[in-house]
Amino acid sequence: MAVHILPDQVTYFSRAATRGMPGCGRHDCRGATRIGRVSVTAEASSARPPRIDHVGVIVDDLEKACEFLRSALQLEVDRSVERSDLRSSFFKCGPISIEMIEVLDADQREARLGAGRSARIEHIAIEVDDLEETLARLQTFGVSPTAPPRRTADYRTFWTDPSTSDGVMYQFLERDRKEPLHPSGAE
Q1: What is the domain count for the chain?
Q2: b/e for 114-126, b at 16 or more Cβ within 10 A?
Q3: H or E, element range at 110
């Protein structure tokens, strides 16, 4: 399908019909069949689009998982977190990070990891400019947070209940603007 931008509208043509149409690159578009038209309005927005901040992976053995990322993928630890309930390490992988998380309590680890599993992707963290607006928009689609937004030292965040977000747990975070843009907090 080819798209032609006209003043205040977009016209869609079937790909086969675009052969020979003027303005279709090397083709001439005369005689093509228009299959749809959509109005386009430009909205000025100063908000950055959301971006993937990190992917959280629950593991049964943090040292083993970290060694794999260091050796096989040649990634370096960007930072580590030690808490009473978990340990994690963030590895920079291009513009995003991979967070390897070991839950210390055996029952909690099994609940988050699953029986007999050594690793699983648990969540995708997305950085947004306005956490409250994001939560309100998601709720209009029936998405529920696992708990109200909470504050950490560097950002505010919430997670989605996977049963309301198409089976995927998302973490949304809004960084304090005074802080550099790097992964913060192990979740």
Answers
A1: 2
A2: eeeeebeebbbbe
A3: helix 106-113
Distance CA 5, CA 104 (A): 56
Distance of CA 102 to the CA centre of its chain: 21
pLDDT of res. 48: 80
CATH of the domain at 109: 3.10.180.10
Residues of the chain short of pLDDT 50, as ranges, are: 1-29, 32-44, 179-186
Tell me if 183 is assigned to some domain. Answer: no
Residue 119 lies in a domain: yes
123: which strand partners? Answer: 56
Exposure string of 90-106, with b = 16+ CB inside 10 Å and e = fewer, is bbbeeebbbbbbbbeee
pTM above 0.85, yes or no: no
Q: Based on the domain organization, do 32 and 61 belong to the same domain?
A: no
Instruction: Please state, in angstroms and rounded to a whole number, the distance separating the CA atoms of residues 149 and 161.
Output: 13
Q: Which domain holds residue 73?
A: 51-175
- Report the half-sphere exposure of 77 (CA within 13 A, side-chain side): 13
Do residues 28 and 88 both lie within one domain? no
